[in-house]
């Protein structure tokens, strides 16, 4: 049976909206959302070895080392649901990771369809990230400005208490943005040179950003799915 295949990575600073758009794109294309940040946070919550290794770096707003990150991504891409494609959010973050991803895709006989960049000014990123609150119980996400719970400090979904994650404090957010600018921004030149970069204005409404991505991403791949 032939089925349309789409393989996209999402680029942009923390708070640029990658996660929100990834979920919508996954619904549109019927492919899994592969988010390294979510996978690491789940591992931290479970107390797994990889989670403990990553926690110190995440709490300081630093990048998780490549040997940890790449291993997680390769394991995920080899799962059955990734055969029809993926929307990747949070990886790669460095040129070294991009090279490793290229090598992995080539080994699997796959190719990348697009690298989508969400462009958002630093001041807006600070506002978005420092206002985020997370349910300590079910991990549902809220915001003090534009995604408030019905009752302040209480999760709508499960009634748990809302907290600010350590990596959402103002000082840590500023460091995360600095790390992104220094280490991750060069990826834009990498994918621009490869002819796969699609640049999107991330300050537009969620619907407008999604429409721009759908208009800008080439979808022409098909594969035989057994």
Task: Report what the structure shows.
The protein is α/β, with parallel strands linked by helices and 226 residues long. The chain has a single domain (2-120, 171-214), classed as Rossmann fold (3-Layer(aba) Sandwich), CATH 3.40.50. The chain is built from nine helices and nine strands. The strands form two sheets. Strands 1, 2, 3, 4, 8 and 9 form a six-stranded mixed sheet that branches. Strands 6-5-7 form a three-stranded antiparallel sheet. A hairpin with a 5-residue loop joins strand 5 (132-135) and strand 6 (141-143). The chain is globular. It starts with a strand and ends with a strand.
What's the arrangement of secondary structure elements?
Blueprint: E1 2-11, H1 18-29, E2 33-35, H2 36-46, H3 49-59, H4 66-77, E3 85-89, H5 95-108, E4 114-119, H6 122-130, E5 132-135, E6 141-143, E7 162-163, H7 170-184, H8 186-194, E8 197-201, H9 206-216, E9 221-224
Helix pairs in contact: 1-9, 2-3, 6-7
Report the portion of residues in β strands: 15-25%
How many strand units? 9
Shape: globular
Judging by the overall fold, what is the CATH architecture?
3-Layer(aba) Sandwich
Average pLDDT value?
A: 86
- List low-pLDDT spans: 220-226
- Within CATH, the superfamily carries the name P-loop containing nucleotide triphosphate hydrolases
In angstroms, what separates the terminal alpha carbons? 7 Å
Count, helices: 9
Query: Helix and strand string, N-terminal first?
Result: EHEHHHEHEHEEEHHEHE
Counted up, domains total 1
Task: Give the radius of gyration.
Answer: 17 Å
Label the structural class: alpha/beta
What would CATH call the class? Alpha Beta
Largest pleated sheet: 6 strands, mixed
